[in-house]
TrEMBL record:
Signal peptide: none annotated. Pfam families: ThiS (PF02597). SUPFAM superfamilies: MoaD/ThiS. This is MoaD/ThiS family protein.
C-alpha cells in the first residue's frame, strides 16, 4: 500500500489531505501522472517527496510497498 499526502494548495484542490493506493510496483512518475489526471493538478506548482526526502528525478524512482509520497507546496524562505 502506498500513501499519498497532500499539503497546501494541493490539499485544497484534491479536497482531502491523504489517499492510499494498493500497487505492487509503480514508478513515481506514473503515480504522479495518474494523480494529475484524477485531480487536474496541472495549474499547481509543488514538489514531490518520498519518505520525507525530496525526489528530483521522478522518472528514475520506483515505489515500494509502504512508501509515503507527499505533494508539497513551494517553500518560502525568510
Amino acid at each position: 500500500m502506498i500513501e499519498v499526502k497532500y499539503f497546501g494548495a494541493v490539499a485544497e484542490k484534491t479536497k482531502c489531505d491523504k489517499e492510499t493506493f494498493d500497487f505492487e510496483s509503480i514508478s513515481l512518475s506514473q503515480i504522479v501522472a495518474d494523480l494529475h489526471q484524477k485531480h487536474q493538478l496541472e495549474s499547481i506548482t509543488y514538489s514531490v517527496a518520498v519518505n520525507q526526502k525530496i525526489v528530483a528525478d521522478l522518472e528514475q524512482y520506483f515505489l515500494q510497498s509502504n512508501d509515503t509520497i507527499a505533494l508539497l507546496p513551494p517553500f518560502a524562505g525568510g
